[in-house]
């Protein structure tokens, strides 16, 4: 398993926070992952303070004008990063003309021998259900679904599960894991959501919970990750646990002998 799509149709549940810090956790373990900002809102790209023209962004790849490897840039944290751009939104609008875009990411990762090579690839997905989101879901070996510990979270998770079920017409079921985020221990709502999730999705809810922690929001504000910003914080511990759990469950492996091509 190498390609992890961090996905939820709901905004604000922690997709970007989780994608960025999971990639940082992998890098901290000495393996250089590929992190792709696949949201036209480009929050991750802005968070890193990257101002790139659309010609240097993932939009170029969806236009068929660049390889993924050519777009990747190294971040100081030891992550290879592909930036996004507002223009990526055009891909969803062009669905009638370019239906094949739905497979583009899967085929591109395969053609460049990035998927299946052991290279961890983390995709920060757009919440907009369109071609771009579907292309990530089709490329994924595992779908990681952050669920915020809030009222109606279960409804959102059930809707999402139905949407993913619809994709099974085109491709066999992709394993998925639900990750409770913004968790407040012993808070009634948080514990209720945790209980409901486990009941409805047995075997698919990760034991790790990412607690509600100011340090995570503050790290984003500084364009940093939790391991550089607050390495001894509970948040850093939560992300280390998340990585360990994914590895223990064979959903990710950290091989140090990877094919990522450096310029
Ligand atoms: N565990 C957490 N503790 C505190 N703040 C969080 C946590 N997870 C996310 N946030 C904050 O919530 C907001 C939305 O998170 P974000 O990762 O951008 O969600 P999404 O990508 O799903 O829209 C951001 O301001 C982020 O800093
Ligand atoms: Mg986001």
Strands across the major sheet, in which order? 3-4-2-5-1-6-7-8
User: At the fourth CATH level, what is the homologous superfamily?
Assistant: P-loop containing nucleotide triphosphate hydrolases
* Overall geometric form: globular
Quick check: average pLDDT? 93
The percentage of residues in β strands lies in 15-25%
Count of domain modules: 1
Overview in brief:
With 263 residues, the protein is of the alpha/beta class. It has helices at 15-28, 43-47, 58-62, 68-71, 89-93, 101-111, 131-139, 153-167, 188-200, 214-221, 226-229, 234-248; strands spanning 3-6, 34-38, 73-74, 80-82, 121-125, 142-148, 176-183, 205-211. The chain has 12 helices and 8 strands.
What keyword list fits this structure?
binds magnesium ion; Rossmann fold; binds adenosine-5'-diphosphate; 12 helices; 41% helix; alpha/beta
Q: Can you describe this structure?
A:
Helix content is 41%, strand content 16%. The protein starts with a strand and ends in a 15-residue tail after the last helix. The model has no long low-confidence stretch (mean pLDDT 93). It has an eight-stranded mixed β-sheet, sandwiched between helices. It is α/β, with parallel strands linked by helices and 263 residues long. Adenosine-5'-diphosphate binds next to helix 1, strand 7 and helix 10.
């Amino acid at each position: 398993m190498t390609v992890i799509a961090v996905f939820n149709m709901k905004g604000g549940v922690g997709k970007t926070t989780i994608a960025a810090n999971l990639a940082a956790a992998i890098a901290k373990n000495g393996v250089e992952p590929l992190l792709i900002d696949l949201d036209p809102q480009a929050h991750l790209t802005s968070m890193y303070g990257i101002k790139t023209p659309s010609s240097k962004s993932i939009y170029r790849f969806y236009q068929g004008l660049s390889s993924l490897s050519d777009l990747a840039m190294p971040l100081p944290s030891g992550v290879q990063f592909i930036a996004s751009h507002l223009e990526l939104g055009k891909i969803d609008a062009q669905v009638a003309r370019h239906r094949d875009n739905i497979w583009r990411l899967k085929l591109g990762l395969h053609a460049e021998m990035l998927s299946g090579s052991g290279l961890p690839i983390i995709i920060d997905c757009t919440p907009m259900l369109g071609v771009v989101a579907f292309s990530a879901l089709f490329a994924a070996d595992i779908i990681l679904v952050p669920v915020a510990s809030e009222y109606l979270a279960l409804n959102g998770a059930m809707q999402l599960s139905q949407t993913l079920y619809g994709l099974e017409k085109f491709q066999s079921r992709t394993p998925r894991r639900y990750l409770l985020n913004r968790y407040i221990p012993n808070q009634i709502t948080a514990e209720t959501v945790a209980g409901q999730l486990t009941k409805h999705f047995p075997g698919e809810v990760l034991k790790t919970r990412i607690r509600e922690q100011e340090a995570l929001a503050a790290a984003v504000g500084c364009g940093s990750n939790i391991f550089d910003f607050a390495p001894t914080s509970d948040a850093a511990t939560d992300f280390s646990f998340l990585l360990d759990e994914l590895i223990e469950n064979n959903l990710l492996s950290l091989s140090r002998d990877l094919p990522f091509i450096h310029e």
